[in-house]
Write a structure and sequence with these properties.
The protein is α+β, with helices and mostly antiparallel strands. It is 48% helix and 11% strand. It has a single domain (9-392), classed as Cytochrome p450 (Orthogonal Bundle), CATH 1.10.630. The strands form four sheets. A six-stranded mixed sheet has the order 1-2-3-9-6-4, sandwiched between helices.
């Protein structure tokens, strides 16, 4: 057995196409290697196990986001000062505004329209004809709520999905797809400054309320722009991927769909299990502000650390039979939404949408029949690009 003072090292490429398409075998090997694994390709350290991912996310004093959460200097510089890439006290000011807007009570009035939209889209797809569970269901359902909630004009809404995907793509190490991702970040900034400028936002939407925070002196104009970019860059992809994953998982595990149909009160627990086993976000990074010791290994100050959310969600040391999809598991402590001060502030909206869509599907669907799934290639996201599907009522 390797002594605890010996640093496990791996030359695995977390961002190789084969790994991005099927990351879990690689994650399993890293978990087995140790709690901290040196990633020789990236001059970084990986935390692949649940215990240490959770600890790092809760310890923002040691694991800083201010130097960026990606592996590319240029992208980290573009995102500097935003809610993802900042520490207190600046992060606290941004977080207070976001939390105020996205707490469950703030979203309560949105519930009926989300339910109605879910029922409408399921009614349109439950004809027996084949459709794509990604583009025709998840992507057709989620973006409208984010756009309406922010108060965006109709113009330019077709760009929103690309903004999100490119942001997550750009957080990986520099590669052939990085320049396009960085160009999309510049396009997002242009969109926020022109098409979605203050005078074009609907009154009462989240966007206009961000600018009200500028008027009240809570934040400055630069911070308002970063908040708008955060809304648009991170508010949709993870929900879309989790909804498409839910369809795939229930198609592959019809016994779990039967169990949910028999007890619809399990919808919240079922969505938690989808998020655990099919985490849309795979990895963000942090930079250590001081030496950090784990199991006899010391990560030096200034070390770039890969915090592996998706690996943690399948850690055998945390979960019983983690590869099994079980809607009765109730994994409320999954790490897909993060934990600590950087926990996903939009998770209440994601849950609202997912619960509504699953409930609407329960009312109409006896079985899902699916074709061959196709997965995205993205440095930070994992999930479906296409899923041929047919609903059996």
């Amino acid at each position: 057995m390797m002594p605890s003072t010996t640093l496990p090292s791996s030359d695995v490429d977390l961002f190789a196409t084969d790994t991005l398409l099927d990351p879990y075998p690689v994650y399993s090997r890293l978990r087995d290697a140790g709690p901290v694994v040196r990633l020789s390709r990236f001059d970084a350290w990986a935390l692949p196990r649940y215990e240490h991912v959770s600890a790092a996310l809760r310890d923002h004093d040691t694991f800083s986001s201010a130097s960026g959460v990606g592996f590319t200097t240029g992208m980290n510089e573009l995102m500097a000062g935003g809610v993802l890439a900042s520490d207190p006290p600046h992060h606290t000011a941004l977080r207070v505004i976001l939390s105020r807007m996205l707490m469950p009570r703030a979203l309560r009035d949105l519930g009926p329209s989300v339910t109605a939209a879910a029922e409408d889209i399921v009614d349109r797809l439950a004809t027996g004809a084949e459709f794509d569970a990604v583009s025709d269901l998840a992507e057709a359902f989620t973006p409208r709520f984010v756009a309406d909630l922010i108060g965006l004009p109709e113009e330019g809404r077709d760009q929103l999905l690309e903004f999100g995907a490119s942001t997550f793509e750009g957080l990986g190490p520099f590669g052939e797809r990085t320049p396009a991702a960085m160009r999309q970040q510049q396009a997002l900034l242009h969109y926020v400054s022109t098409t979605a400028a203050r005078d074009r936002l609907a009154e009462g939407g989240l966007g206009s309320r961000v600018w009200e925070a500028v008027d009240s002196g809570e934040i400055d104009e630069a911070a308002a722009v970063t908040l708008m970019m955060a809304f648009l860059a991170t508010g949709m992809d993870t929900t879309i991927l989790s909804l498409a994953a839910a369809v795939r998982l229930f198609a592959e595990h019809p016994d779990q769909w039967d169990a949910l149909r028999a007890d619809p009160s399990l919808v919240p627990a079922a969505y938690l299990e989808v998020l655990r086993i099919a985490s849309p976000v795979t990895v963000f990074s942090r930079v250590t502000t001081r030496p950090w010791e784990c199991d006899g290994v010391t990560v030096p100050a200034g070390g770039r650390v890969a915090v592996m959310y998706a690996s943690a969600n399948r850690d055998e040391r945390k979960w019983d039979d983690p590869e099994r999809f079980d809607i009765t598991r109730k994994p409320s402590d999954h790490l897909t939404f993060g934990v600590g001060i950087h926990a996903c502030v939009g998770q209440n909206l994601a849950k609202l949408e997912a619960h509504a869509l699953l409930t609407a599907l329960l009312a109409r669907v006896r079985r899902f029949e699916i074709g061959r799934p196709e997965f995205i290639v993205n440095n930070t996201l994992h999930g479906l690009n296409r899923l041929p599907c047919r609903i059996v009522t």
